[in-house]
Design a protein that fits this description.
single chain, 88 residues, alpha+beta, two-stranded antiparallel sheet, 2 strands, flat
Amino acid sequence: MLPKGIVGKRFADVTLKRKVQVFTMAAMENTKLIDKDPVVFNSNQLFHRIVCVLRSADDPEGCLQYEWAPYLPSLFDDVGLRARRRRF
């Protein structure tokens, strides 16, 4: 599936807008549409994160009640990276 703007152009003349993303074939297998946006996920990494968080095999729902984030949300505020507190 090619965007309409690149058909018939030389490779050197092709420019893509930021919203037009290129995914590898491997990533296309792990892509789901969430709110009309393609989201690529790594199922192996997701499995390992869930296994690390599980405390027992009886409670798999307990680890899925929180949002998974690629970074610790406590490090950031509404603007960006939080300033550290100085200890005197």
